[in-house]
Structure formats: structure tokens, C-alpha cells
Design goal:
globular, 23% strand, two-stranded antiparallel ribbon, 6 helices, five-stranded parallel β-sheet, 38% helix, alpha/beta
């Protein structure tokens, strides 16, 4: 009897605190489900390195080193089986293209929506990924951010 293949868990990261939280949760999810983990960082025409905007074509190795450093938290949590991909393009496109091309079982992203209106809380990147994904999307809210739901 063939066991169905479990597609990878794709997690988009950008160096933010909530992306780090999403990264660790994606690592746990992948480990529990027996899936591989693909860590995706989108790179465009420029990237912020040490607070300065620099052209990516001249700094891809440095960007890769930053992303690898962000993944240190995975290693510290004993998640050592993952692949890092730097994908050219907008974050939404990079994550969705990777998830599609690798037949992901789930996408994990952090959200940074900061508006007071409910439609702004999800954030544009997470919203677009949810809207256009072929697979389930797990959106990780920031720690301590109010949900707007009254607790009894």
C-alpha cells in the first residue's frame, strides 16, 4: 500500500520578530507531520542590510548569510532538516510560487497587520497569500496583539 506523499511546509520569512515565530511554528509543524521544511525569503531589487538599502545583485551572499542567521532559532530547537531558498520577486509571489512548484501541504506566514479596522489586521501579504494559495495557510498573529474579540 502506497503512503501518500506529504508536501513540504513552506514558511515565508523577512527577519521580523513575528516571522521568527512563524518559522519556529512551521518547524514544529513540519516535524510532527513528517514533512520537509522550505524557508523562503523574497529578494527584490534592493534589500535592507545593517539599516541601509543595497542592490541585491551585489549582496546575495550577504543576504543568504542573514537568512541563515535568522534560521539559527530552528537549529537551537533541534530542527536541522530544512532548506533555505532566496527567491527573486515580491514576497507574495515568492511564497506562492515556491508552494505551487513544490506542491506544499501548507504555507506558514506571520502577520503584521496593525490597523484598528478588522480588514487591516491580517496584513496585505498574509491576505494575498490566503486569497491565492492552492493549499491551507497558517497565519501566525503577533504575540500580545489584541484580536478584537471580547474575552468573558
Amino acid at each position: 500500500m502506497d503512503v501518500p506523499r506529504v508536501g513540504p511546509v513552506v514558511v515565508g520569512i523577512d527577519g521580523s520578530a513575528n516571522a521568527q515565530r512563524a518559522l519556529l511554528l512551521a518547524g514544529r509543524y513540519a516535524a510532527r507531520s513528517g514533512a520537509s521544511l522550505l524557508v523562503v525569503h523574497a529578494i527584490g531589487l534592493t534589500e535592507v542590510i545593517d539599516g541601509e538599502h543595497v542592490p541585491t545583485h551585489d549582496h546575495e551572499q550577504e543576504i543568504a548569510e542573514h537568512v541563515d542567521t535568522w534560521c539559527e532559532a530552528l537549529r537551537e530547537a533541534d530542527h536541522t532538516d530544512f532548506e533555505i531558498r532566496l527567491v527573486h520577486g515580491a514576497p507574495v509571489d515568492a511564497v506562492l510560487r515556491t508552494a505551487h512548484d513544490d506542491d506544499a501541504s501548507v504555507i506558514v506566514v506571520g502577520r503584521r497587520g496593525a490597523g484598528n479596522r478588522p480588514e487591516l489586521r491580517l496584513g496585505s501579504t498574509a491576505h494575498q497569500i490566503v486569497e491565492h494559495s492552492h493549499c491551507p495557510v497558517l497565519v501566525i498573529p503577533p504575540i500580545g496583539r489584541s484580536t478584537g474579540v471580547d474575552n468573558p
